[in-house]
Design goal:
There is one protein chain. This protein has 17 helices and eleven strands. With 441 residues, it is α/β, with parallel strands linked by helices. The strands form two sheets. The protein has a six-stranded mixed β-sheet with strand order 8-9-7-10-6-11, sandwiched between helices. A five-stranded mixed β-sheet has the order 1-5-2-4-3, sandwiched between helices. Strand 3 and strand 4 form a beta hairpin.
Length: 441
């Protein structure tokens, strides 16, 4: 135990003055620490690395999410939530692709007591068939509500699932079939996850935080989930493909998705391109398609993530009478970027802005998240940052990814109108007419 504390203290102190080298493996019980003395508050994320949605087998999609729901419901039902609230502490439980997280955020003076309550919670997890039935009911309701409130997110995830092979995130069928034995097996592996680490932002000294975390680390068994990155094949031919979701809305919500890699790859080049195309209201896409052509109200370009896939998303919402012209011109615009002089002018302008914003946009939370993600995914960094990105780097990226056979299109609008446009202007695209229910079945 003394050796463990010595290691924890040395790691924690390292983060007061610097950070671990890039590409470092995360050791068990490691503390990623940022000090923030603006308020007497402490936020601790207990991260079970290797658990999460990617561990769900095809016949058990939704298992990790269901266990999170059961832990949350159990914390409320058995009074743990009330105990934490009485100490001025909030509890949160989240499921990601590669890990599950139990978070507490509250008054620093009560941090030690809050940690003991969380330890008691996770060491005494007990679920019944009735608990599982209620958790399933809640999740089924969430799935259905998501079709209305987060339709665009699920449309895009579905399209990427069908083309790049990312793992399905929701399935009503497998959710209904989950058994209590499935839950207990996952729970056992979760509590024994090989690597559990901590993300901490606090006004407390790092050594004090390390002492407070001892109840979580001491005598914890391992041998459960093990962290491993999926072998993603993002460099294969995936398009052109179009997914059409029928809607009677007066606008055609249109997305061009351009997958280019995984979370383990650096993003300086695509981030620079995205900023030049959109960035703000003065980005090239809003300026051209909204101000000059008047074809759409809120076009954009953003860097996105779905599962472990990184992609660029170009969005436009033309009204029905403008949809054909918009779709045709946007598709041509994307593929002609390498030879578009206006793009290179916009790129030059955005370089300086990004360099400044990247330096001054570092809150403790963002800085901490970047460090953890870089470590988990072994993400490389460029010496010199955006200054190191050459025009040739950008051109090479555009010529590799901004081509028809790398693009996925997703549309929400009158299906017959959209299919006619695709058949006329993009006959080589494989068109998939999808039902809304297919997103969650």
């Amino acid at each position: 135990m003394f050796m463990f504390l010595k290691v924890i203290f040395s790691f924690a102190l390292c983060y007061v003055v610097g950070v671990l080298p890039a590409f470092a493996e995360i050791p068990n019980h490691h503390i990623f620490y940022r000090q923030d003395t603006r308020a007497p508050l402490t936020k601790i994320d207990i991260v079970f690395l290797g658990a999460g949605r990617n561990r769900d087998q095809p016949s058990q999609i939704g298992l990790a999410r269901t266990v999170s729901r059961l832990i949350w419901d159990g914390a409320k039902r058995r009074g743990y939530m009330d105990q934490l609230l009485a100490l001025g502490t909030r509890l949160n439980i989240t499921t990601s692709t590669l890990y599950q997280t139990i978070s507490i955020y509250g008054l620093s003076k009560n941090c030690g007591e809050s940690i003991k309550i969380v330890v008691d919670l996770i060491q005494n997890l007990e679920f019944s068939d009735l608990d599982l039935k209620e958790a399933k009911r809640q999740l089924m309701t969430i799935y259905q509500n998501d079709l209305r409130n987060r339709a665009s997110t699920h449309m895009k995830s579905f399209a990427l699932l069908q083309t790049t092979g990312i793992q399905k995130q929701r399935s009503l069928k497998t959710l209904k079939n989950l058994s209590l034995e499935d839950i207990r097996q996952y729970q056992s592996r979760l509590l024994k996850t090989q690597v559990v680490f901590f993300k901490v932002i606090s006004d407390l000294d790092s050594t004090e935080v390390a002492k407070l975390l001892r109840p979580i680390t001491e005598e914890r068994e391992t041998g459960g989930f093990v962290h491993s990155l999926a072998d993603l094949k993002t460099d294969s031919k995936i398009g052109p493909a179009a997914f059409v979701f029928n809607s009677n809305m007066k606008s055609v919500f249109s997305y061009w998705l351009i997958p280019f890699g995984s979370l383990g790859e650096e993003t300086y080049v695509p981030a620079l391109i995205s900023s030049a195309l959109r960035g703000d209201i003065h980005g090239l896409i809003p300026k051209y398609f909204r101000e000059e052509l008047g074809l759409t109200y809120s076009p954009s370009c953003r860097l996105r993530t779905s599962g472990e896939i990184r992609y660029l998303e170009i969005f436009a919402d033309p009204q029905l009478h403008n949809s054909e012209e918009l779709i045709q011109k946007m598709s041509d615009f994307i593929q002609e970027l390498p030879n578009n002089p206006r793009f290179w002018e916009a790129l030059k302008e955005r370089r300086e802005i990004l360099k400044v914003s990247d330096v001054h946009n570092q809150t403790p939370q963002r800085s901490l998240n970047r460090e953890v993600n870089s470590t988990i995914y072994n993400r490389p960094s460029r010496k010199g940052g955006y200054d190191s990105v050459t025009d040739e780097d950008v051109r090479s990226f555009l010529e590799k990814f901004f081509v028809s056979d790398k693009m996925i299109m997703v549309f929400r609008g009158p299906k017959d109108n959209i299919k006619d446009i695709l058949n006329t202007h993009w006959p080589e695209a494989e068109v998939h007419e999808q039902s809304w229910q297919s997103l969650i079945e």
